[in-house]
Specification:
Chain lengths: 114, 392
């Protein structure tokens, strides 16, 4: 399978992030790790570009973030921990419905593999 | 008790302090001093500070020998369960806390411990290092070198963004935390510091593209607010003096409207005669004294802030702070008295008002210090970031 590159991802990135946060709160690097592990390492994202997506969703109230209070064995700079909000959950549910419709519709036209 | 002292310390830093206690035991000392903390830092296997010291030729044996020349071993009978910190060691930890606070609002790590020790040149650690031929400033530079490189990578992406300083600071610190974490990953993977920094930078992405993406997350209102601040506010990396002079100049120009309006209305009421000058006196006095006071008090605020935090070339000194506050009171009293004296064209009311003005001045001086302590960390961090030279 070909690796999926950042540009194709961008449109769906926000829904993907919301889905990973469903597992529990996480900071930026952890979110990337979850994305990578679920996507079997095929998702190639420039790490920095995660944050504009996170900030956009934060402005929209879909996720909330707090600075961490305890070091947790870290080297020094504190991180922000993101979590899903109620609004975010609703958006995720909508995103899932849309994706289902998308797959079914296109599947009907393109035809499922044998 | 020790829990409180080491709050906000990373695991590595706590271990270093535990090792410091071990070292103190080795010397049979009943206290923990800067020399023990230094030994702990130089023996630490992980972390920038250990790397830097060893790269500069400091081995644990060398440092131990030098310290042995400076302090005596304790008495045979010394058996203490927990050792207190010496006043200098406490100061060094306080400096370490400050270093962590003003550089990245992070937790205190071993590099901050070392930076804290370097701020006590007269402590045993400082003397030992200097005896071994090292310049404390050079060590500081080396410790901060990688951190500065990392900060520049982040700053390339954030500086072009039009947003409030609070938002930009948040972006900078979060991105730096991410960058340092992937840097650590690359280091563990077996790269030297420079290679790891480059690899982390590549993983991070193109700064210009990131800047555009970050900009798109800033609300429109905030962009206009940022443009306004850029026009009237501090333009990095200009000096405080330059910024305040420019602001005072803008204030002077702004006040011209007020003075002109006052002049116009006075003329229309009194006609062209000498009483116009009498009526205009307060406005003229204000026109000159306000920008001047603003400039002087602004500079004093910066001095108070820098002295309190011991940054930008200032040493922490309560004496100096007292002197600054006295100067503050003097300036407020002089300007207020001058305003009254010029307006009334008489020294007497100014003379009687002196105590009253001094009281106001004292309140303002204390208020200024309180604001400096509160706003200081954010302002200092913003200054450090915005002053990074991205060309080199």
């Amino acid at each position: 399978m070909q690796p999926i590159h950042g540009d194709k991802l961008r449109g769906h990135l926000e829904a993907l992030i919301l889905a990973t946060l469903e597992e529990g709160e996480a900071h930026g690097l952890e979110i990337l790790k979850r994305l990578e592990s679920r996507g079997c390492g095929l998702l190639r994202l420039k790490e920095g570009s995660l944050y504009p997506a996170l900030y956009r969703m934060e402005e929209a109230g879909e996720i909330a973030a707090v600075w961490e209070k305890e070091p947790h064995g870290r080297r020094g700079a504190r991180r922000r921990i993101y979590r899903l909000t109620a609004k975010g959950s609703r958006k995720l549910a909508r995103g899932r419905e849309e994706w289902q419709t998308f797959v079914v519709t296109l599947g009907g036209i393109l035809g499922a593999p044998a | 008790m020790s829990k409180d002292i080491y709050a906000q310390f990373t695991e590595a830093a706590r271990q270093a302090m535990a090792e410091a206690e071990n070292q103190a035991q080795g010397f049979r000392h009943e206290y923990i001093g800067t020399e023990h903390i230094l030994l702990a830092v130089v023996t630490a296997k992980v972390g920038v500070s250990g790397d830097v010291l060893r790269a500069l030729g400091m081995t644990p044996e060398l440092v131990q020998a030098e310290i042995g020349k400076l302090v005596h071993f304790g008495p045979e009978s010394a058996t203490v369960s927990t050792r207190p910190l010496t006043p200098r060691a406490k100061e060094a930890l306080e400096f370490a806390r400050q270093e962590a606070l003003v550089t990245c609002q992070g937790f205190v790590d071993t590099e901050h411990l070392l930076l804290g020790l370097l701020r006590e040149p007269e402590g045993v650690a400082g003397v030992a290092l200097r005896n071994l031929g090292l310049e404390l400033d050079r060590i500081r530079e080396e410790v901060l070198k990688i951190r500065v490189l990392q900060m520049k990578i982040v700053e390339r992406a954030v500086r072009p963004v039009l947003a409030t300083t609070a938002r930009k600071l948040k972006m900078r610190e979060e991105l730096l935390a991410h960058l340092t974490e992937i840097y650590e990953q690359e280091r563990i993977g077996g790269g030297d510091p420079l290679f790891a920094t480059q690899a982390a930078s590549r993983r991070f992405g193109d700064p210009q593209e990131l800047a555009r993406d970050l900009q798109s997350t800033v609300p429109w209102v905030e962009r206009y607010e940022a443009m306004l601040t850029k026009w009237f506010g501090w333009r990095a990396p200009e000096s405080a003096l330059r910024y305040l002079s420019r602001s005072a100049g803008q204030m002077f120009l702004g006040l011209s409207f007020v003075t002109a309006l006052a002049f116009g209305s006075t003329i229309s009421k009194l006609g062209w005669n000498s009483s116009v000058f009498i009526a205009m006196r307060p406005f003229i006095a204000m026109h000159f004294l306000m920008p001047l006071t603003f400039l002087l008090l602004g500079l004093l605020y910066i001095e108070q802030r820098n002295t309190w935090f011991g940054v930008f070339g200032r040493r922490r000194s309560y004496l100096w702070l007292l002197g600054l506050s006295a100067l503050y009171v003097l300036i407020v009293t002089a300007c207020a008295s001058g305003l009254v004296a010029f307006s009334r064209w008489n020294l007497e009311p100014a003379f009687f008002g002196v105590l009253y003005f001094a009281g106001i001045g004292l309140t303002a001086a204390v208020g200024s210090l309180v604001i400096a302590i509160g706003n200081g960390p954010n302002e200092i961090r913003d200054t450090i970031w915005a002053s990074l030279d991205l060309e080199t």
